[in-house]
Amino acid sequence: MPFVLITGASRGIGYEFLRQYSSDAKNTVIALVRNKSATEKKVSEDAVLQGRPNIYILQADITDYNALKQAAADTAEITGGSLDYIIANAGLVPKFDLFLPIGELGNQPGELTKTFREAFEINVIGNVHLFNLFLPLILAGHVKKIVTITSGLADNSFTNQWGATPGALYAASKAAMNTVVAKFNAQFKKDGVLFLAVCPGPVEVGHYDGATADDLAAVEPLLSIFKEYSPGYERPKAPEVSVRMMRDVIEASSLEKGDGGAFISHYGNQQWV
Ligand SMILES: NC(=O)c1ccc[n+]([C@@H]2O[C@H](COP(=O)([O-])OP(=O)(O)OC[C@H]3O[C@@H](n4cnc5c(N)ncnc54)[C@H](OP(=O)(O)O)[C@@H]3O)[C@@H](O)[C@H]2O)c1
């Protein structure tokens, strides 16, 4: 009877995690979202998800410590005090650095500072508080897996080898979170908790919606890199495909196999695309 917590379950990859985990009636899925009523409405109007009795929706902005604390208490009420999986998927994917290299971001210093701070608050600090607040429940659970959704753009070898310039601030926040994952692993592996940072690969969730012709031209070199890096690559995967692959990786990974604190992709290795 696994209990699964998914953050950022309102849309995109998180919503697909919600759809897939809740498709198994044995799972109880807690969706942590910023706007509870909007997500409840979305689920109630979703022909596949509506009426699933194993879905609970809780509200917290991941930057709001007190709201997270309340969510941990509410989760304990639902589960009886334990939790098996955390899928820490909520994240800021800023538009500001999506198309421009870091040297050009410097032309807008105020926006650079603001976006970088937001990325750290959401993608790093929020998750640190989330893990600390929910760890007592995980320690009382059976499966004990805490998964962060990261990005291969945080792999410095990839950036250096392929000259991948976009997403500098975003990638730095994900790299910081990868280190946080390793530090949590260092402390809690003795308690049997597996921490993982898993990259979904490029996934189509609308991040390029509304992009101008100039934006698309700016991101074209990254797409060319993906094609050279991964011959056969054509376009981002559908969330359904990526989430299924990530779930397989999550199931297959274990402390016994040496996966504690690993930074890996939906392929289970460091092939990012
Ligand atoms: N899509 C890709 O190609 C890709 C590639 C690599 C990694 N990732 C990672 O995958 C994860 C999901 O991304 P996505 O592509 O599905 O993005 P998305 O469609 O933009 O979804 C982001 C999710 O995070 C939530 N969120 C953002 N800020 C939050 C906050 N302060 N508090 C609570 N929730 C917050 C959003 O909630 P609201 O609906 O309330 O805004 C939304 O549910 C992210 O960690 C992202 O970095 C994505």
TrEMBL record:
SUPFAM superfamilies on file: NAD(P)-binding Rossmann-fold domains
Entry superkingdom: Eukaryota
Residue spans crossing the bilayer: none
Pfam families, A to Z: adh_short
PANTHER family in alphabetical order: CHAIN DEHYDROGENASE (ATSC), PUTATIVE-RELATED, SHORT-CHAIN DEHYDROGENASE/REDUCTASE SDR
Protein name, per record: Oxidoreductase
Organism from which the protein derives: Podospora pseudocomata
